[in-house]
């Protein structure tokens, strides 16, 4: 394959470039984030998005079956022989009219992109298939990640598939049970650090540098290339029409960064005429992005991000001994590593950021459960955010909205069971105790 892909530092004052045979998780020159970029060979990229849809007809081919590699010309950084796939990306865009009607959006205008259908039960598999393909390209033998749970599950699954050793770092007591069970079951060495995700993220970078391990967090630019395909599949599900809004939960801000890049590139290639707007939803207990963007006026500013705003805020967090807390443990993050790329996505997509309470998240989760698709708490931040944006009229009922439900409902059964059993919210639906007696059972059923 003639090499058309390269890595480039996002900092315009640096702009250093590297080949794809190397593996970094930050620019060796200035320490900023790296992008995977392409010298697009327009002859090789389909001229219409609908051409990708034709690959359904050859889905017995492993790469055409993958919901990521079906779009391989748009993430063309390695030869086919390195491409790893375990059948990721067979996900569903569901038009949900019942939920739409309930929250006051026009019939036909609310779509739920259910990434819980991936092999490890979350959107992470989209990124891992790409990052592990790059890991194979560079001949990595051992890998690691920090995680609030889903990354560790996906890494463990793909590492096993590739025959790589893997170690996952999780914050002790900070991970949902379903996810912890996956990491152990899929054979990862699981290290619980007495700290939160941000502590784990710091340690794993030091460990990977020290021991020369391949890092699989979203600092890895190739991971984000795989996550772009979630947007391609939304477009595909809408008959290649661009929605008005994409709504996504914000944690480490890999998804939002990848989505902005996906749309920027599609526009650059002439494959779409306009980009959708992006709404990124934090939990109020982990609302760094919302605080920095809405209250401290942090902006992409053509890549010249005001680092002082970020460092001042982080110094405040440290001084307060702050550790984030939310029932949406997947997004319990206060120092998101992709912050700058996310600012760029907000710039490209005229994005907005909101923060929603745990109460709003669990209520929204129950609604999503009741109206057709379950999801884990972090994913429900999308619908809670949509309710806020509708109430403030930022989103109008006649606009087309796609919410990314990032993880499966069985990832975190504790939050669901507690919400219902302990009658914690307005949609709680607790089980009813009954004597082992037919008369009493029938009596109960008639009420
Ligand atoms: N939703 C779910 C279900 C997640 O697991 C995550 C992140 C997010 C949303 C946030 O996505 O980081 O791209 O903004 N989980 C990571 C993990 C941090 O370790 O599993 P983001």
Please outline what is shown here.
By secondary structure, the protein is α/β, with parallel strands linked by helices.
Task: Compile the SSE list and pairings.
Blueprint: E1 5-9, E2 17-18, E3 34-38, H1 50-53, H2 62-65, E4 92-95, H3 97-103, E5 110-114, H4 124-137, E6 142-147, H5 150-162, E7 165-171, H6 177-185, E8 189-193, H7 197-211, E9 214-215, H8 221-227, H9 229-237, E10 245-249, H10 254-268, E11 277-283, H11 288-295, H12 307-319, H13 339-348, E12 352-356, H14 358-370, H15 377-391, E13 401-405, H16 413-421, H17 438-445
Parallel strand pairs: 5-13, 6-7, 6-9, 7-8, 10-11, 10-13, 11-12
Antiparallel strand pairs: 1-2, 1-3, 4-5
Helix pairs in contact: 4-5, 4-8, 5-6, 8-10, 10-13, 14-15
């Amino acid at each position: 394959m003639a090499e058309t892909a390269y890595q480039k530092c996002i900092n315009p004052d640096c702009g250093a470039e590297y080949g794809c045979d190397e593996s970094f998780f930050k620019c060796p020159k200035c320490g900023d984030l790296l992008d995977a970029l392409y010298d697009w060979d327009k002859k090789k990229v389909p001229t219409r998005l609908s051409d990708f849809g034709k690959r359904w007809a050859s889905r017995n081919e492993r790469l055409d079956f993958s919901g990521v590699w079906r779009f391989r010309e748009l993430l063309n950084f390695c030869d086919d022989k390195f491409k790893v796939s375990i059948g990721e990306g067979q996900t569903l865009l569901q038009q949900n009219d019942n939920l739409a009607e309930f929250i006051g959006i026009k019939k036909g205008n609310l779509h739920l992109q259910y990434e819980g259908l991936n092999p490890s039960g979350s959107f992470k598999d989209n990124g891992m298939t790409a990052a592990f393909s790059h890991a194979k390209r560079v001949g990595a033998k051992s890998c690691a990640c920090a995680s609030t749970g889903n990354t560790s599950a996906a890494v463990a699954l793909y590492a096993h598939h590739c025959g790589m050793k893997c170690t996952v770092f999780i914050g002790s007591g900070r991970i949902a049970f379903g996810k912890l069970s996956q990491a152990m079951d899929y054979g990862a060495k699981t290290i619980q650090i007495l700290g939160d995700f941000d502590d784990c993220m710091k340690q794993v970078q030091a460990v990977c540098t020290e021991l020369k391990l391949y890092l699989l967090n979203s600092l890895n630019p190739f991971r984000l290339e795989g996550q772009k395909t979630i947007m391609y599949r939304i477009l595909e599900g809408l008959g290649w029409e661009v929605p008005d809004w994409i709504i996504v939960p914000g944690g480490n801000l890999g998804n939002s960064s990848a989505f902005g890049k996906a749309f920027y590139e599609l526009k650059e290639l002439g494959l779409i005429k306009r980009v959708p707007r992006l709404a990124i939803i934090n939990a109020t207990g982990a609302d760094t992005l919302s605080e920095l963007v809405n209250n401290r006026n942090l902006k992409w500013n053509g890549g010249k991000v005001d680092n002082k705003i970020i460092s001042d805020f982080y110094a405040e967090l440290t001084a307060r001994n702050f550790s984030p807390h939310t029932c949406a443990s997947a997004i319990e993050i206060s120092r998101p590593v992709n912050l700058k790329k996310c600012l760029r996505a907000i710039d490209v997509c005229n994005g907005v950021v909101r923060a929603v309470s745990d109460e709003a998240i669990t209520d929204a989760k129950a609604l999503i459960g009741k109206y057709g698709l379950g999801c884990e708490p972090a994913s429900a931040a999308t619908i809670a955010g949509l309710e806020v944006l509708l109430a403030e009229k930022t989103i109008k009922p006649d606009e087309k909205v796609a919410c990314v439900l990032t993880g499966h409902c069985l990832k975190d059964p504790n939050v669901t069971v507690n919400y219902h059993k302990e009658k914690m919210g307005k949609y709680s639906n607790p089980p009813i105790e009954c004597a082992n007696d037919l008369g009493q059972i029938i009596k109960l059923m008639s009420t």
